[in-house]
Amino acid sequence: MLSVAIIEDEPLAAEDLEKTLMEVYNDARVVVKLDSVHTAVQWLDVNEVDLILSDIELGDGLSFDIFDKVRNNTPIIITTAYDQYAIRAFKENSIDYLLKPIDKTELETAIKKYRNWKQKGQEFDVDNLLEALRPYSDQKYQERFLVTLGEKINSIPSADVAYFFSEDRYTFLVTKKGTQHIINMNLGDLEGSLDPKKFYRINRKFIISYQSIQNMVAYSKSRVKIDLIPPPPNAMDVIVSVERSGPFKKWLND
């Protein structure tokens, strides 16, 4: 039997993860679900499991804080909705790294990696994971963006940004006052430089600030349509993609 601890602050996400885990490996047993840094530290300090499935961002801090305080070297599979974290560092120093919503096939692959690792008698070194991720646990986010207005160069604080969008190979910054500027960054670069608590990439074309949301309606069974302030140019539809709808709703609740 494989004993597992799930560290996840969203109850439905924890239940879904447990259900998917049982589907891919019926010899697994989730012995505890922990929803905060505080409860995880308390439990792991006196209990052990074979494997930990852990979200990164919890209500009272980051899961790095747990593993920094409890050095029991239990193997860890990282789960997160935020793909701007250091994927390579996670891949090299944890058993695996899974983006939410958790794909059944990817979880099955991660469990196979754990079993192969276990059969080889390898020891998991949590210090390597912490060392690789320490620079990202207190990451500094971009606070200003340079834009040109004719011959003038202005600096726009990120707090004044309503959203970013891409169109015709250009990336545009739109301020809360409705001014629009071309910037020399693509959405992928922006996603890694913005504070994930304030900005979210809802699809391939838009990264929005939570303060720019005027209204939301169910667009289909799995998607959400958003009215932004100020409105996008050319009456562009702003729709959260299917794969990002669940994490987007979690982001709004954080």
From TrEMBL:
Residues of the HTH LytTR-type domain: 145-208
Keywords carried by this UniProt record: DNA-binding, Phosphoprotein
Residue positions, PTM 4-aspartylphosphate: D55
Pfam family, one: LytTR
Keyword Ribonucleoprotein: no
Sections of the chain in a coiled coil: none
Domain Response regulatory, residue spans: 3-115
Transmembrane segments: none
InterPro entries membership: CheY-like_superfamily, LytTR_DNA-bd_dom, Sig_transdc_resp-reg_receiver, WalR-like
SMART domains: LytTR, REC
Record keyword DNA-binding present: yes
Lineage: superkingdom: Bacteria
Name assigned to this protein: LytR/AlgR family response regulator transcription factor
